[in-house]
């Protein structure tokens, strides 16, 4: 984005002597690069021959205006009955040591001459943004030397944010970029994006871009914002700037209208997109696919998760539809019908469960009281209800819960009445282990083992 051979001559003799070293340093870096992007056509042309000889890929990069400026809503505005309306002219950039490079002497001299010619019509003000507080006095002295008529007093402003600079543009009538050498000229581009009238030096990369875009966007009259300069004759160039400043101030309303029209065409063209895509590709970043071509995305499921969900659904429906009744009997030694099996994992019977079953048998032979039998009969519906696991529980949690119930309530479960029903319960007779009826949770319990 810099070309020392073009810019250093306007700084100082010492800077001019160091041009060769700076250019060589930049070329050393360029020769080691895989790809080079030059900001604007002027810089691209400056390094084209060197990069071509070293067979380095070389592309142009065109900056996109910041959204801070493109969102600005600038218009000329209506004026009341004012005898000498005020016109504000804005220049951006530090002054000290670069006044000739950035053309602050041309801006101040041009504004002073225009103020003399328009003295009976307008009051001109010059604002300069980007002054370091340590350079204030010296910067003001440089400007005052060119403002000899005394009709214009410069207002020097410190460095500012983009929002502060946009506010400056919204409150001015003209932005100046009078650089004698400017690799690109971002300040001028931001003014164009804001919709403010602007005058820019022909010795800038932005001037070349405007000449090309004004034709392609079918607004060739906008190129009159480019000021032709000789570069060496300060007096002649100062006079040219004075003429152009006077012309814009006298036709401010139409200048704002043309600036707004060019802004809209410029932003709609998206002239920067192709260079940005090349830059992303060179960095190994894939350009985004248009939104319309992207298929609707669905949450990804792992294969084992999908199969687990299907198994749970089948298991829940089976346990709900095929729950055995309270009076259903199954011979302990007979195999469980295939239709009664649930697709959930079964754990082998643990030692604790076996121990609980043996204790239940011993206690069953000692229980002969009819009242105790009737109490166990009353408990049966509650036990059966607790044995039905909610459909939302997982197989693992269901099995753990049943193991706890079997262990805590083994006595009641294992001393259930025979198919004879209430008569046997009334006589106090209990079943032996061999002909005991199956529990309501038969598909999940291990009574057939006993």
UniProtKB/TrEMBL annotation:
Biased composition regions of type Polar residues, renumbered to the chain: 317-332
One Pfam short name: GT4-conflict
UniProt region (Disordered), positions on chain: 313-396, 411-435
Signal peptide: none
SUPFAM superfamilies named in the record: UDP-Glycosyltransferase/glycogen phosphorylase
GO biological process, alphabetically ordered: apoptotic process; positive regulation of neuron apoptotic process; proteolysis
Compositionally skewed regions (Basic and acidic residues) per UniProt: 343-381
GO molecular function: cysteine-type endopeptidase activity
GO cellular component: cytoplasm
CDD domains noted in UniProt: GT4_PimA-like (cd03801)
Protein name: Uncharacterized protein LOC109481302
Organism: Branchiostoma belcheri (Amphioxus)
Protein's gene: LOC109481302
């Amino acid at each position: 984005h810099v070309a020392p051979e073009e810019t250093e001559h306007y700084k100082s003799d010492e800077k001019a002597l160091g041009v060769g070293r700076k250019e060589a340093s930049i070329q050393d870096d360029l020769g080691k690069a895989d790809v080079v992007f030059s900001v604007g056509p002027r810089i691209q042309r400056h390094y084209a021959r060197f990069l071509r000889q070293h067979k380095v890929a070389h592309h142009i990069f065109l900056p996109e205006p910041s959204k801070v400026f493109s969102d600005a809503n600038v218009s000329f505005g209506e004026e009341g009955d004012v005898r000498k309306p005020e016109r504000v002219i804005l220049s951006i950039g530090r002054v000290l040591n670069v006044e000739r490079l950035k053309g602050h002497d041309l801006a101040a001299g041009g504004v002073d001459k225009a103020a003399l010619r328009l003295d009976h019509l307008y009051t001109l003000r010059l604002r300069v943004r980007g002054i370091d507080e340590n350079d204030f006095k010296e910067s003001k002295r440089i400007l005052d030397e060119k403002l000899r008529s005394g009709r214009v007093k410069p207002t020097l402003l410190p460095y500012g944010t983009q929002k502060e600079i946009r506010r400056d543009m919204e409150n001015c009538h003209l932005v100046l970029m009078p650089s004698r050498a400017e690799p690109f000229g971002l300040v001028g581009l931001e003014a164009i994006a804001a919709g403010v009238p602007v005058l820019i030096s022909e010795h800038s990369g932005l001037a070349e871009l405007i000449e090309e875009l004004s034709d392609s966007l079918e607004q060739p009259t906008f190129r009159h914002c480019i000021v032709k300069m000789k570069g060496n004759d300060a007096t002649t160039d100062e006079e040219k700037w004075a003429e152009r400043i006077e012309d814009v101030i006298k036709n401010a309303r139409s200048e704002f209208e043309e600036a707004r029209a060019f802004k809209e065409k410029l932003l709609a063209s998206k002239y920067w997109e192709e260079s940005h895509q090349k830059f992303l590709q060179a960095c190994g970043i894939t350009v985004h696919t248009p939104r319309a071509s992207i298929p609707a995305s669905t949450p990804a499921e792992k294969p084992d998760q999908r199969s687990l969900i299907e198994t749970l659904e089948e298991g829940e429906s089976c346990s709900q539809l095929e729950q055995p009744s309270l009076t259903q009997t199954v011979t302990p030694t007979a195999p469980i019908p295939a239709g009664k099996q649930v697709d959930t994992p079964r754990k082998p019977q643990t030692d604790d469960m076996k121990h609980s079953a043996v204790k239940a048998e011993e206690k069953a032979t000692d229980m002969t009281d009819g009242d105790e039998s009737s109490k166990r009969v009353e408990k049966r519906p509650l036990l059966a209800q607790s044995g039905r696991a909610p459909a939302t529980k997982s197989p693992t949690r269901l099995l753990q819960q049943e193991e706890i119930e079997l262990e805590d309530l083994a006595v009641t479960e294992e001393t259930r009445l025979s198919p004879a029903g209430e008569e046997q319960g009334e006589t106090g007779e209990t079943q032996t282990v061999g002909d005991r009826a199956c529990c309501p949770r038969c598909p999940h319990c291990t009574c057939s083992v006993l």
